Amino acid sequence: MSAPSRPAGRPADPHELLVPISLELSPIRRLLIIDVADDPTYRTLEPQVLAEAGGDVLVLLAYRHDGHVELYAPSGHDLDPSGYDGLGEGLRGIHQARFELARFEVDDGGLQLELALAAPNGRRFDLRIHEHLAGRRDRFGVLAPVGGAFDAPAFFPFLWLPGMSFVPVRDTEVEVRVDGRARRIPRLPLPVGGRRCLMARYDPDVLVCQLNPDSARVAPRVPVGGAPGPAGPELDIVEVDDGFGIAALRVGRGAHTCAARLDPPLPDPRSLPARAHRSGAMLLDADGVTQLRGRYELTRADDRVELAIGGFGPWRTRLRRPLLALLFRLPIFRRWPTTYRWQATLELSGTPRYRLTSRWARCSARSPWVRGRPERRSG
To answer: Is the Cβ–Cβ distance between 129 and 113 less than 8 Å?
Structure first.
């Protein structure tokens, strides 16, 4: 038998707030993206440094021409694959590999990468990039269009690179080998900061945020005016007409912060009257200098609340450099946010109470904010 619910429009406890949305920070803290021009199997190689409890761990993502992705991790390291769910045509397993070299640092001279691994599936990767820049790096902030690579997303990926740099052709030692064969990195068509550069870019201090990972879970309740719990994002809780609401969720590392801001604040779903509908604007921003604008909706029907997030516009940035302005006009940068839509159902009664079931899907870029089942569309 289902537990009886409280009357619509009255929170179960005026001293707590039910939180139906989430913002999580991935352990990825450093990454390098290398385009490969002439390999028959792979188009992009991506070394990543993960901040794990036992220390930093270097892994390698290898994007194949057929859309599948391979993930290589050091032998004996149990890696959580959930952060890669829905990537391309799917993750083809986590390969435990023998890492002979595993160095990814950024010092006064620039990028210092040495990665050599051999995997049981017969693959071997040897990557070596040493910059000699004498402290001169041309850096800029960019929202990476990684969302375009997720055909069946399990979350909304918000990848902020606050200090991305392209690897220059001069003053750099470069060696890329796949299965023992030398591979070439293509060059950018225009210079960056007066330098010819390769299609290899990196950031030593990234924030990889996941908005509303797909789940079937119990929505958390947080105290109003009390000490926040140790897990989850920092919340800005404010008074609204029906009690309390969420004005912002925030996560960060070091000097960098990503936030989801809601205007008007998202109300406690339990406070909605029967058949009530609420909507508002959602702004995703990073360090206050880059942003994506979207919409949220809540609709209550008896003891069930339907929630939706979508209607995202193209990424907006203040950068005005000629090459970057041209690059950021490409469809992959502008289109991918507009194709994402989140739908969830919150059960206010039953067992367990406050069960939240949600999913992300890709929808048509021409009609991103429509009711009903969205059309899946690749980036």
So the answer is: yes
Structure tokens at 342: 């989140």
Query: In whole angstroms, what is the distance from residue 216 CA to residue 233 CA?
Result: 19
Task: Show Cβ contacts of residue 241 under 8 Å, excluding neighbours closer than 6 positions.
Answer: none
Q: Which helix (H) or strand (E) holds 100?
A: strand 91-107
Tell me the per-residue pLDDT of 274-301, one tens digit each, with 9 for 90 and over.
999 999 999 999 998 878 999 999 999 9
* Contacts of 219 by beta carbon, 8 Å cutoff, 6+ apart: 18, 19, 20, 346, 354, 355, 356
Over the stretch 50-60, which tens digit does the pLDDT of each residue have?
Answer: 988 788 999 99
Give 99-106 contacts, CB < 8 A, sequence gap 24+.
99/58, 99/74, 99/75, 102/58, 102/74, 103/58, 104/30, 104/32, 104/47, 104/49, 104/58, 105/204, 106/30, 106/202, 106/204
Distance CA 86, CA 82 (A): 9
| Domain boundaries defined on the chain | 16-22+212-362, 25-208
Count Cα neighbours of 262 within 13 Å in the Cβ-side half-sphere. Answer: 28
pTM of the model: 0.85
